[in-house]
Design brief:
Blueprint lengths: L22 E4 L2 E6 L3 E4 L4 H6 L11 E4 L4 E3 L13 E3 L1 E7 L15 E8 L2 E2 H10 L4 H4 L5 E3 L3 E2 H4 L6 E6 L2 E7 L7 H11 L7 E3 L7 E2 L5 E6 L3 E6 L2
Parallel strand pairs: 3-14, 5-10
Antiparallel strand pairs: 1-2, 3-4, 6-9, 6-15, 7-8, 7-14, 8-11, 12-13, 12-16, 16-17
The structure holds manganese (II) ion (MN).
Length: about 240
């Protein structure tokens, strides 16, 4: 697909230095995974939907986005963001796409997955709540600086496609969130298929697949430690 926005420029043709491409490491190799878009699934575990005051049985999946340059790497510090008193962690499995498409059938969707990782959908919950109340968009609550800590990816060619297994988050060694991938309301193939009906997916897109129950606030000095069974771990100190 070529249009004005994707037109390439020869070296030296940009009026300012082009921004760096966001990317994630891949376990065991030096080549990195380039990130094009960051999609997030909302309320995708029943127990979390209930804790946020919603009925998990009534909703089709819904999505929001973060910016690729909101990603920080495993071990990098999360700077407590501005204009908020209530920053929440949301531990999530990250699905990284190696192939794109539109209207991808559910039964073909896993062929589009490059690999998996562990991510945090960091959220300014107070600003998100205000946005919900005022029927405004969610970017101020979700798509701010460093709001997407992500681990290295592991290729599906090595680990397959995890559809069950523990997902948890500890803060300062204390278990805060716990769930199982088999509790996802919209499974990975379904979220890819549904998303591809709304957007043109492309290699480099990643999807944060939703968080289990137990979300809560962090403060400066905390250390978050996330885990997805068979996929990996993520450590993020708050500064
Ligand atoms: Mn989330």
């Amino acid at each position: 697909m070529t249009n004005a926005a994707t037109k390439t420029a020869a070296a030296g043709e940009f009026v300012i230095a082009p921004p760096p491409l966001a990317s994630l490491p891949v376990r065991g190799i030096s080549a990195r995974f380039p990130v094009r878009r960051v999609y997030c699934v909302g309320r995708n575990y029943a127990a979390h939907a209930i804790e946020m005051g919603h009925d998990p049985n009534k909703e089709p999946p819904f999505f929001f986005q973060k910016n690729p340059d909101n990603i920080i790497q495993n071990g990098e510090a999360f700077p407590y963001p501005s204009k908020t008193q209530d920053v929440h962690f949301e531990i999530e499995m990250v699905v990284a796409l190696g192939k794109g498409g539109t209207n991808i059938p559910v039964e073909k969707a896993l062929d589009h997955v490059y690999g998996y990782g562990v991510g945090l959908d960091m959220t300014r919950r107070d600003l998100q709540g205000e946005a919900k109340d005022l029927r405004r968009p969610w970017e101020v609550g979700k798509a701010f600086e460093a709001s997407a800590p992500c681990s290295e990816l592991v290729p599906a060619s090595e680990i397959g496609h995890p559809d069950h297994g523990a997902i948890w988050l500890d803060v300062n060694g204390e278990r805060k969130q716990t769930g199982d991938l088999n509790q996802l309301i919209w499974k990975v193939p379904e979220m890819i298929s549904y998303l591809s009906g709304l957007f043109t997916l492309a290699p480099g897109d990643i999807i944060m697949s939703g968080t289990p129950a137990g979300v809560g606030a962090i403060k400066k000095g905390d250390v978050m430690h996330g885990f997805v069974e068979g996929v990996g771990e993520l450590r993020t100190p708050v500064v």
